[in-house]
Specification:
single chain; 35% strand; globular; 6 strands; 4 helices; disordered C terminus
Length: 164
């Protein structure tokens, strides 16, 4: 019989995997479930490192889930397809946390595909089903190339809220 820690770990892993899968985009896919299916409404989403945000402030260093939804909606206009591959992950059932190095593959309309590695640090609720904090640590060199591609693809950098 599985222990309580094993059950929480499995729940956290399933929740984290569903959260990452939510970010995938494929041609003709059905509408994705809302972010609120995975994340508490008052959760803050942190984007790091600060040096990357300083150069690309439209990403915002800290945003609400509503602000993230707005950002994703704008990205949807330039992303043809995207998917992820978990390269390494760690799940801490006692602290209700997950961390992972994830390769995010993206194909922008009219561009060659590119990949970026992102380190994710995610906190969960006591039952492990909902995310209560998100920290996304972006590879700055590849991230800068991705930003350039988004801008060339029509992402309106001026439309994005640039408050930190």
């Amino acid at each position: 019989m599985a222990s309580s820690a094993d059950e929480i770990r499995a729940t956290i892993e399933a929740s984290f995997t569903a959260f990452l899968k939510r970010q995938n985009v494929s041609p003709g896919q059905e509408k994705q479930p809302p972010w609120s299916s995975y994340i508490l409404p008052d959760t803050l989403w942190y984007v790091k490192p600060d040096s990357f945000i300083a150069e690309h402030p439209f990403f915002k260093g800290v945003k609400t889930i509503a602000e993230h939804e707005e950002h994703v909606a704008q990205e949807a206009g330039v992303i043809e397809e995207s998917r992820h591959k978990i390269l390494h992950s760690v799940y801490d059932s006692s602290a209700r946390r997950a961390s992972a190095i994830v390769e995010h593959w993206t194909k922008l309309f009219g561009k060659e595909p590119s990949a970026i590695e992102v380190c994710w640090y995610v906190d969960f609720t006591e039952n492990g089903k909902m995310i209560s904090r998100v920290t996304q640590f972006i590879d700055t060199a590849l991230g800068a190339k991705m930003v350039k591609g988004l801008a060339e693809g029509g992402y309106d950098m001026d439309k994005a809220d640039t408050k930190k």
